[in-house]
Design a protein that fits this description.
Blueprint lengths: L6 H6 L3 H10 L4 H4 L9 H4 L3 H15 L3 H10 L4 E3 L5 H8 L12 H22 L5 H26 L2 E2 L19 E2 L1 H13 L16 E2 L2 E2 L7 H12 L2 H12 L8 H6 L39 H4 L4 H6 E8 L7 H6 L8 E3 L1 H8 L12 H6 E4 L2 E4 L4 H6 L1 E8 H14 L3 H8 L3 H4 L27 E3 L2 E3 L8 H4 L12 H16 L5 H12 L2 H14 L5 H8 L12
Antiparallel strand pairs: 1-7, 2-3, 4-5, 6-10, 8-9, 11-12
Helix pairs in contact: 2-5, 5-8, 5-9, 8-9, 9-10, 10-11, 11-12, 11-20, 12-20, 20-21, 20-24, 21-24, 24-25, 25-26, 26-27
C-alpha cells in the first residue's frame, strides 16, 4: 500500500508550521492518508524529504486522535467509577453491564487497526527514505521511534480490551485482512506484551524530539513538545504489564528526573515532582484553602488558574508544564471535535456518562488534614452536582471559558502512582509509601529532627530508588526532591496505610488512590485488569464492578460479578 495524500493538502505543506496546523484542521488523517484514488500521489511524490516525513507523523497523530472517546469510554465505563445516565445509548449500557453486542460501536477493533495500518505504512516508507538517503539517520531514528511507539500504545490498548489479537507489523492490502486469522493469527495477550516490549525497547531513540527538530515548534499557542508520546512512560507501562518492575521503575524515574540538571530552580525542583502547596499564593496544583482560613470549606481554592482543578483548566503555562507529560488539544476552531463535551456535559452536551455512586463513596470515605470528611478531588473538582445530577467536570472547565479541551494522556500524578506500583512490587515499600502519601522527605525523616539533615530525608539507594529530599540550613541542603509532597499530600489527605505495610496492602492503597486521582482520564479498567491478573485474583476486579452496579440497583449485578470471575469474560468480542 502506498500512503496517499490529497494534492491540495500537498500544496499547503510549505513549512512545518502548516503541517502542525493540519493536526488540528484535518482532525483525522483520513483526509491525509485515505483519499479517493484520483487524488493519490505516488510514494516518490509523498516521501521526498524530512518535511514530508513530518507531515506523515502529524497525519498519524491526526488519525490517533480519533481514538480519544473510545479509549476513555472503554477504560472507564467498563470499570467501577463511571456509569450510565438516563440519556445513555444501549451501547454504553452494554459496556457498563459487560454484555456487549457484536455491533457495539465502542467495542470495534477496526478503528485501532486503521491507526496501526497507517503506522505500518509510514514506518515502511521511512525505511525506504533512509535507504535512499532522503533524511539523516538521526531524523529517521526520531520519527521512526515516535510512530513505532504510537503503534505499541494502540496495540497495548487492543490487548487490554480484546485479549488475543493479531499482531501485524507490515502494511496489508486491505484492513479487512485483519479478520483473516489463518493469515494473521491471534496471539495471547502475554505474547503481545512480550512482542511490544522487545520492539519498543529495541528502538534506537527513546527521548522526545531533539531541540533542533523541525517538529518542535509553537503553533496557534500550542508548543508541540507535549503532543508527542513519551516513550519512557510507554516503556514503563509495558514493563509494568510484563512484570519487570525494576525496568518499569527505571523508565518512570527517568521521566521523574527530566529536569534534574536544569539550571532553573522551578524546573529542577518542580517538574513532575507533585510538589508541596504554595500556602501563601496558592499558585500550585494542590487542594488548598485561602491562608488562615483552612478550617472553612468556603475558602477552598476552586478556579481555573489555581489549585488542583487548574490541572485540567489552565492554559499551557509554566505550571501546566510541570504536570503534563502528554496531552493532545481540542479546539473549536479545528477538527476533530472534542468528543468529551457531548459525552459528559449536561450544559453543553448530551450527558451520556456520570460518576458512579461507588466513585462518590470512595471520595467521601477520605479525610482531609483539616478534618473535612471527604476528598475535594471528588465533588469539588472531578465532578459537580448540577441540577441534582452528578456531572463529570474535568473535561468541561477549559471548554466553559475558551471552547477548548484536551485528551488527557499522561501527567505527573499518573507517573508517580505507576512508579509507586512498580517500586512496591520490587520490594521498595517505603519508597512507594512516600510517593503515595507525603513525599520522600516525610517517609525518610526522623523525629525529633536534628538541625543537621545530612544523613536523613534521603533513600541512600541506587537508581531508580535514589531520592534526595533534604531541606536544611546548617549545612545548607536543597535536595532535588525537597519540594516533593506526594500524591495524597497534594490532595491534602491523611495518610493511606503505614510504613511497613505489606506489598498487597500497599498496592491496594495505590490502586485506590489512582482511582481518586485519575478518575475519568482513561486508566481505571486497565489498572484493575493489570492488578487482578498479577494477583491471579479475578475477584479484585469483579467485586468492584459488582459494587458499582449493586449501588445503582442494577438487578444484573450478581450475574455480572459471576461472569467477571472468569478472566476470559473480561475481553470484548473481536468483531467489526
Amino acid at each position: 500500500m502506498i500512503t496517499t495524500i490529497n494534492t491540495k493538502t500537498t500544496k499547503s505543506i510549505l513549512s512545518i508550521v502548516s503541517v502542525m496546523v493540519l493536526l488540528f484542521s484535518l482532525g483525522s488523517c483520513s483526509d491525509y492518508l485515505d483519499v479517493e484514488p484520483e487524488d493519490k500521489l505516488s510514494g516518490d511524490q509523498v516521501y521526498r524529504n524530512v518535511y514530508d516525513a513530518d507531515a506523515a507523523v502529524i497525519g498519524i497523530y491526526g488519525k490517533f486522535m480519533g481514538l480519544a472517546e473510545q479509549n476513555v469510554v472503554l477504560n472507564e465505563m467498563r470499570a467501577d467509577l463511571m456509569t450510565t445516565t438516563r440519556n445513555s445509548s444501549p451501547f454504553l449500557k452494554e459496556l457498563s453491564e459487560h454484555n456487549v453486542s457484536a455491533n457495539n460501536t465502542y467495542a470495534n477493533p477496526k478503528v485501532f487497526y486503521e491507526v496501526i495500518q497507517n503506522c505500518n505504512d509510514v514506518l515502511k516508507n521511512f525505511d525506504i527514505m533512509l535507504a535512499q538517503k532522503k533524511f539523516t539517520q538521526s531524523q529517521y531514528d526520531q520519527r521512526y521511534a515516535d510512530v513505532g511507539c504510537i503503534r505499541s500504545w494502540v496495540y497495548l490498548q487492543l490487548g487490554i480490551h480484546f485479549g488475543n489479537v493479531p499482531y501485524i507489523t507490515e502494511p496489508i492490502e486491505t484492513i479487512e485482512d485483519v479478520k483473516n486469522f489463518s493469515k494473521y493469527p491471534k496471539i495471547p495477550f502475554t505474547q503481545l506484551i512480550d512482542n511490544l516490549v522487545t520492539f519498543t525497547e529495541g528502538l534506537a531513540y527513546k527521548e522526545i524530539y531533539d531541540a533542533q527538530s523541525s517538529l518542535l515548534i509553537t503553533v496557534d499557542g500550542y508548543n508541540t513538545r507535549k503532543l508527542f508520546i513519551n516513550k519512557h512512560c510507554l516503556l514503563g507501562d509495558l514493563q509494568l504489564w510484563k512484570g519487570d518492575y525494576l525496568a518499569a521503575a527505571s523508565h518512570y524515574k527517568k521521566i521523574m528526573e527530566t529536569a534534574t540538571t536544569s539550571a532553573s530552580d522551578t524546573e529542577r525542583y518542580d517538574s513532575y515532582r507533585v510538589k508541596y502547596a504554595d500556602v501563601v499564593t496558592n499558585n500550585d496544583l494542590n487542594v488548598g484553602y485561602v491562608r488562615f482560613s483552612e478550617q472553612d470549606a468556603k475558602f477552598l481554592i476552586n478556579n481555573n488558574t489555581q489549585g488542583w482543578r487548574s490541572i485540567f483548566a489552565r492554559d499551557r503555562d509554566v505550571l501546566w508544564n510541570t504536570e503534563w507529560i502528554w496531552s493532545l488539544p481540542f479546539d473549536w476552531n479545528f477538527a476533530p471535535k472534542n468528543p468529551f463535551i457531548a459525552l459528559f456535559s449536561k450544559t453543553y452536551g448530551d450527558y451520556l456518562a456520570k460518576p458512579s455512586q461507588r466513585a462518590i463513596d470512595l471520595w467521601n470515605s477520605q479525610t482531609q488534614s483539616n478534618g473535612f470528611p471527604y476528598d475535594a478531588r471528588g465533588s469539588k473538582f472531578s465532578y459537580n452536582i448540577i441540577g441534582g445530577d452528578p456531572v463529570i467536570m474535568k473535561y468541561e472547565y477549559k471548554y466553559q471559558t475558551s471552547l477548548k479541551g484536551d485528551w488527557f494522556l499522561y501527567r505527573a500524578g499518573k507517573l508517580h502512582l505507576r512508579y509507586a506500583e512498580a517500586a512496591n512490587r520490587n520490594n521498595h515499600q517505603r519508597v512507594a509509601y512516600g510517593i503515595l502519601n507525603f513525599g520522600i522527605q516525610n517517609a525518610y525523616d526522623v523525629s525529633p529532627r536534628p538541625e543537621d539533615v545530612t544523613n536523613i530525608q534521603q533513600t541512600f539507594d541506587g537508581f531508580p530508588y535514589d531520592f534526595d529530599a533534604r531541606n536544611g540550613e546548617f549545612p545548607y541542603y536543597r535536595g532535588n526532591w525537597h519540594r516533593g509532597g506526594g500524591v495524597r499530600g497534594r490532595a491534602r489527605l491523611t495518610a493511606a496505610g503505614a510504613i511497613g505495610d505489606d506489598m498487597i496492602k500497599t498496592e491496594t492503597n495505590i490502586i485506590n488512590e489512582a482511582g481518586m486521582e485519575l478518575a475519568y482520564e482513561g486508566n481505571r479498567w486497565e489498572d484493575l485488569v493489570r492488578v487482578a491478573l498479577r494477583r491471579n485474583d479475578p475477584a479484585f476486579l469483579a467485586d468492584k464492578v459488582y459494587d458499582k452496579l449493586s449501588k445503582e440497583g442494577n438487578s444484573n449485578a450478581s450475574a455480572v460479578r459471576t461472569k467477571l470471575l472468569n478472566v476470559n469474560n473480561w475481553y470484548l468480542p473481536f468483531n467489526w
